[in-house]
Write a structure and sequence with these properties.
70% helix; Rna Polymerase Sigma Factor, Chain: A; 2 domains; mainly alpha; Butyryl-CoA Dehydrogenase, subunit A, domain 3
């Protein structure tokens, strides 16, 4: 159901100001197209044991959460906010289903360890060839691992932020940026983490910072980002994992991530 722009603005007011439940339903119905679009772009081939309806159902949960938590007064488009939460809900469902074989997960963990080791020893991110040599794998298999890593959300920035808290609720990067109430630790701690996150993003190399912006704020897929940057999809996955690794290390240095 499509709503004219002026009516859409009134609908947001009716829900957010006057708590009209019918306005809430109208908003969810209006933006439901975002769920199918996001699910289709995120997962081209549905894993065995699942069907596309499972992805859509998970995405709907993210859409409802985005409608309930969105603040229209913030300087961010609802579509951007919603896509981030829809994508996060779908990836969380896939991770909970544990559809990645154990052998692949072990290789993904090894990939992360090798990347961290190379950057520590050389002071820069390792090249695909260096990573392949360290892991004893062909370069094309390492590229495949980068793609797999992105698709399974192993190096998710959302997951990294979630590790900052003792609570059970998932914390999404975009929520921390635009939602004053997103932090389960309270407003003061939430503002401090947002400040640290912004500082960490500002420290990223230009290409990694652009990948973070296009992925988390513009809702582009890694394939689409590759076209923007003029590089392969696997290279974008590598840039993303490098960026998240840097942010994770920065957050750890600041005392906001409590995992090894």
């Amino acid at each position: 159901m499509s709503i004219p722009r002026d009516h859409l603005q009134r609908t947001w007011i009716e829900y957010k100001v006057y708590k009209d439940p019918e306005a809430r339903v109208e908003l969810i119905n209006h933006y439901s197209y975002l769920v199918k679009i996001t699910a289709g772009r995120l997962v081209a081939n549905v894993p065995n044991g699942l069907d596309r309806d499972d992805l859509v159902s998970a995405g709907v949960i993210g859409l409802i959460k985005s409608v309930d938590q969105f603040d229209p007064s913030r300087d961010v488009k609802f579509e951007t906010y919603a896509i981030a939460l829809i994508r996060g809900a779908i990836l969380e469902m896939l991770r909970d289903e544990d559809w990645v074989p154990r052998s692949v997960r072990e290789k993904l963990r090894a990939l992360e360890r090798v990347q961290q080791s190379l950057e520590t020893s050389t002071g820069r991110p390792g090249t695909v060839r260096e990573i392949a040599d360290a892991m004893g794998l062909p370069e094309d298999e390492v590229n495949d691992l980068f793609v797999r890593a992105g698709r399974t959300n192993v190096y998710s920035l959302d997951e990294t932020i979630g590790n900052s808290y003792d609570g059970d609720d998932n914390v999404h990067f975009i929520e921390m940026i635009v939602d004053e109430e997103a932090s389960p630790l309270g407003e003061v701690e939430g503002k401090e983490l947002r400040r640290i996150l912004a500082a960490g993003v500002d420290r990223l190399p230009d290409r990694e910072r652009l990948v973070i912006a296009l992925y988390y704020f513009e809702g582009l897929t890694f394939k689409e980002i590759g076209k923007v940057l003029g590089v392969s999809e696997s290279r974008v996955y590598q840039l993303h994992t490098q960026a998240v690794g840097r942010l994770r290390s920065f957050l750890r240095e600041q005392g906001t991530v409590h995992v090894a």
